[in-house]
Specification:
This protein has 15 helices and 16 strands. The chain is of the alpha+beta class. Strands 1-5-6-11-10-9-7-8 form an eight-stranded mixed beta sheet, sandwiched between helices. Strand 12, helix 12 and strand 13 form a beta-alpha-beta unit. Helix 1 packs antiparallel against helix 5 and helix 5 packs parallel to helix 9. It is elongated, with a radius of gyration of 28 Å. It binds adenosine monophosphate. Adenosine monophosphate binds next to strand 6, strand 10, strand 11 and helix 11.
Length: about 425
């Protein structure tokens, strides 16, 4: 038997209603805030990620699915989608009119990580990106939408953790302070952190090794190094959030894994998820578009892990959303043609119908299937119905049934549904 690749999984029909519910909520709510969907390829030139995410990040250093195509070009399955969306923004000159561009995407990402619950090698993200403004109201309004999104999905409790990592004016002095703090302890650091110390010392905050974590607990705080513009920007974001009644916690150690972040960074934690409890992350990336060869267009966005979102949904979410309205039970070959006619009639009227032409299967077996699929009604065509040219409609919730000719089927269904 050939099985799916480690870290990649099938989403079976039993689970799909929850995925549809999450995606439908995203489409509806994001549109209300003026976001429009963008779909980019799942593979890109490797250079896009190397430049966009940064060579110093774990993703680029260790986690990318990179391969050569038949012409020897280096391609990479996208490990995240901010760089590809920024590439599309530049390539199609979406900045042309000077407007703010609000985009969102839903789709699979690929990272070579060690699989465990909530961590996959192929996983799906729902993300939004706002290009063309560095106004703190953009940060706050997008965060407000994010909180509304989680609340509409019924995901609680969550913690929104917020920080500012400064900009190219103030970050160098903070970076230097971290290097000065860590260098005397270099010998004690794990191998990864020694590499991080060279390329991006802020990343040491993400280290999971207990000794390193202890060391980082005493490290200088970025909050003490923000320049006056960054501090004012952060104050303003927080003032808007306070005005919206959006609750958050401050954590100066939240630096996020990707190199392109500037100023606002944030994460949402769902304690119910256990070890892999980060539901989403995001922040401001004002230099990204420029570093990819585009204009100086600031950006702000987040990416939610859709798999983790689905895992955190309340059990009742989307329950029954995709149940068929009618299951047809047809006994014997002569029942097939009238069953098909009834199915067609119902579907044309917008009803969802399941009908498997298995005339030899017993009434009991066919009823069990209708029950398993949680159909609201069963339409029975047995010998007696065929002989009389009628149909028996049974409402599953109360067992009430009625016998009607084809022509009255729709009216009867409607009547019984509302009874
Ligand atoms: P990031 O792009 O690393 O900021 O990740 C944003 C969100 O995507 C995380 O908070 C997770 O919810 C989700 N995510 C990242 N990596 C994985 C993975 N390997 N498996 C499942 N979800 C992931």
């Amino acid at each position: 038997m050939i099985e799916s690749v480690k870290g990649a999984r099938d989403i079976l029909p039993e689970e799909i209603a929850r995925w549809h519910f999450v995606e439908r909520t995203a489409h509806e709510l994001f549109a209300r805030y003026g976001f429009r969907e963008i779909r980019t390829p799942i593979f890109e030139p490797t250079e896009l990620f190397a430049r966009g995410i940064g060579e110093g990040s774990d993703i680029v250093a260790k986690e990318m699915y990179t391969f050569l195509d038949r012409k020897g070009r280096s391609l990479t399955l996208r490990p995240e989608n901010t760089a590809p969306v920024a590439r599309a923004y530049i390539q199609h000159q979406l900045h042309r009119r000077g407007d703010i561009e609000k985009l969102y995407y839903i789709g699979p990402m690929f990272r070579y990580e060690r699989p465990q619950k909530g961590r996959m090698r192929q996983f799906s993200q729902i993300g939004v990106e706002v290009f063309g403004s560095d106004h703190p109201a953009v940060d706050a309004e997008t965060l407000e939408m994010l909180v509304a999104f989680l609340s509409r999905l019924g995901i609680e409790p969550v913690r929104l953790v917020l920080n500012s990592v400064g900009d190219p004016v103030c970050r160098p002095s903070y970076r230097q302070a971290l290097v000065d703090y860590l260098t005397p302890h270099r010998g004690r650091l794990c191998e990864d952190c020694r590499r991080r110390l060279e390329v991006n010392p802020l990343r040491c905050f993400d280290c999971k090794v207990p000794a390193d974590r202890e060391l980082m607990a005493g490290a200088p705080s970025v909050a003490d190094f923000l320049c006056s513009e960054c501090a004012a920007h952060f104050d303003s974001v927080r003032a808007y959030l306070d005005a919206f009644g959006v609750a958050y916690e401050l954590d100066p150690r939240l630096v996020r894994g990707l190199d392109y972040y500037r100023r606002t960074t944030f994460e949402v934690i769902a304690p119910s998820l256990g070890a892999q409890n980060a539901l989403l992350g995001g922040g401001r990336y004002d230099g990204l578009v420029e570093s990819l060869g585009g204009p100086a267009a600031p950006g702000f966005g987040f990416a939610v892990g859709e798999d983790r979102l689905v895992l955190s949904l309340p059990d009742a979410a989307a329950a029954g959303d995709e149940r068929p309205e009618v299951a047809i039970v047809a006994l014997g070959e002569p029942a097939i043609a009238p069953a098909l006619e009834a199915a067609r009639r119902l579907r044309r009227a917008g009803r969802s119908v399941i009908f498997d032409p298995v005339p030899d299967k017993s009434l009991k077996a066919q009823m069990r299937r209708a029950h398993d699929r949680q159909a609201a009604f069963v339409l029975i065509l047995g010998e007696e119905e065929i002989a009389r040219g009628v149909l028996t409609l049974k409402k599953m919730s109360d067992g009430v049934q009625a016998t009607v000719p084809q022509a009255e089927l729709l009216t009867k269904l409607q009547e019984m549904a509302h009874a």
